[in-house]
Amino acid sequence: MSDATATLLGPETLAQEIRRSRFRAVAGPVEDEAAARRFIAGNSDASAGHNCWAFRCGDTYRFSDDGEPGGTAGRPILQAIEGQGLDGVAVVVSRWFGGILLGSGGLMRAYGGTAAACLRAAARRPLVRLARVWIACPFAEDARIRARLAAIAGSRVEDARFTASGVCLCVALPAGEVAAFTAGLADLTRGQALVSATPPAGD
């Protein structure tokens, strides 16, 4: 489990030259692996010799050396993300070769250092841990529950499944709000909403 405490507020770019090779890092916030891969594809430059990258989203992380010697690019970029206590972040570092070989150690310092410098320059926001719960309720309570959820910053309905007796909502909300929200549902729905950590049986 990642112990990161922050993510990025928005995208950041940093370029530098290291022994005639040009390096450009682009970092940005991503919600999940699919978003990370879209970010990587959108910020890779076809004119570069290598577009190396890494991302971390909670327990999911990936990295690529994109043709550089194994372990010299993607892993150092990931270490830059983790070393700064970040999560929900993707970084692409593109390299244009300048004619001087950097060696494995030089490549690791160049890729990791460029990523780290880019991340240090980026604005950040606190990372809010989300928890997910399922709520089974009659149709008549659906709108009331959604309205209560909308009053909690950072919360959202992620899935809705309809059954013969009502609706099952998968909601995500800040982990610190779960206990109060759950307790409040009993009064709000007069005990008609059932809360569980997994989808109700049969769904």
Describe this structure in words.
The protein is of the alpha+beta class and 203 residues long. It has two domains: 121 residues, 2-Layer Sandwich (Ribosomal Protein S5, domain 2); 67 residues, 2-Layer Sandwich (Alpha-Beta Plaits), CATH 3.30.70.240. Helices cover 30% and strands 34% of the residues. The chain has five helices and eleven strands, in the order βββαββαβαββαββαβ. The strands form three sheets. A five-stranded antiparallel beta sheet has the order 2-3-6-4-5, with helices on both faces. Helix 2 packs parallel to helix 3. The longest helix is centred in the middle third of the chain and has 19 residues. The radius of gyration is 22 Å and the shape is elongated. It starts with 5 loop residues before the first strand and ends in a 7-residue tail after the last strand. The model has no long low-confidence stretch (mean pLDDT 91).
Q: What is this structure's SSE topology?
A:
Blueprint: E1 6-8, E2 12-18, E3 21-29, H1 33-43, E4 50-57, E5 60-64, H2 74-83, E6 89-96, H3 103-121, E7 124-126, E8 130-137, H4 142-150, E9 156-162, E10 167-174, H5 178-188, E11 194-196
Antiparallel strand pairs: 1-7, 2-3, 3-6, 4-5, 4-6, 8-10, 8-11, 9-10
Helix pairs in contact: 2-3
